[in-house]
């Protein structure tokens, strides 16, 4: 059985039987029926609970006259993503801000949670970045069809109908490569950051690791920004007016 974090142990103690039964119901046999929930999934659940609690806290304390520090932070993040979306996508970008912000918050907290003793960054496990990339892929494709209907398929045929047999497979491969690119970029950076931090903590436990923890924080914010930025760019290509 793989090593479990304390929060993973709690979830497996409470939910192992129903989760195992559900997996078997869809014909998936868990490797460890007594502990079907692994650390990365447990950390994702914890991040979800944390974000819901924070959103609820902010929502109950919204104020026009006397906004608090937390409200200023969230309004600043909202304004930044909205302005960036407007510059990239255009004036009709406001409808996508909620998705981009939620995706960004989730990835950022997943990146940073590994800095807390007793936790791990789920984005350092390849399946989590892959899930985020697939979510972004499905979302911008769905928005493309919502915006242009079946005419969105013209986007894959290229500007000249005669080149459609050549362009369609190239475009399909290009879009699938975006999922791979988003996944590898986020996973590789977070996995490498965690490994470097652990190595230096084990070699020099005092002083030096602080520098790498600061670097880890910087990489966490940077990778979150890049992921959201690329998703915005892909959205722009899907909902551009000419499509």
- End-to-end C-alpha gap: 51 Å
Helices, by number, come to: 7
| Helical residue percent band | over 70%
The average pLDDT value, as a whole number, equals 90
How is the main sheet built?
Answer: none
Low-pLDDT residue spans: none
Please tell me how large the radius of gyration is: 21 Å
Key terms for this structure?
globular, mainly alpha, 71% helix, 243 residues
Please summarize what this structure is.
The chain starts with 5 loop residues before the first helix and ends with a helix. Helices cover 71% and strands 0% of the residues.
Describe the structure.
The chain has seven helices and no strands. It is an all-alpha fold and 243 residues long. The protein has two domains: 1-37, no CATH class; 39-239, no CATH class.
SSE diagram, text form:
Layout: H1 6-25, H2 39-60, H3 69-88, H4 97-112, H5 127-148, H6 164-203, H7 208-239
Helix pairs in contact: 2-4, 3-4, 4-7, 5-6, 5-7, 6-7
């Amino acid at each position: 059985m793989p090593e479990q974090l304390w929060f993973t142990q709690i979830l497996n103690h409470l939910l192992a039987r129903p989760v195992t039964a559900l997996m078997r119901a869809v014909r998936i046999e868990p490797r460890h029926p007594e502990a079907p929930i692994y650390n990365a999934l447990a950390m994702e659940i914890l991040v979800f609970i944390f974000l819901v609690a924070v959103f609820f806290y902010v929502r109950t304390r919204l104020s026009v006259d006397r906004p608090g520090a937390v409200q200023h932070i969230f309004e600043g993040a909202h304004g930044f993503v909205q302005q960036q979306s407007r510059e990239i996508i255009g004036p009709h970008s406001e409808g996508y801000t909620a998705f981009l912000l939620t995706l960004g918050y989730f990835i950022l907290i997943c990146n940073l949670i590994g800095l807390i003793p007793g936790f791990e960054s789920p984005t350092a496990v390849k399946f989590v970045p892959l899930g985020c990339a697939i979510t972004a892929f499905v979302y911008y494709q769905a928005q493309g069809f919502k915006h242009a209907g079946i005419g969105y398929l013209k986007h894959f045929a290229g500007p000249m109908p005669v080149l459609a047999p050549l362009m369609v497979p190239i475009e399909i491969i290009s879009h699938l490569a975006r999922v791979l690119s988003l996944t590898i970029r986020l996973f590789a950076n977070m996995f490498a950051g965690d490994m470097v931090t652990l190595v230096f903590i084990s070699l020099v436990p005092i002083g030096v690791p602080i520098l790498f923890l600061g670097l880890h924080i910087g990489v966490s914010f940077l990778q979150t920004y890049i992921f959201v930025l690329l998703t915005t760019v892909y959205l722009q290509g899907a909902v551009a007016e000419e499509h």
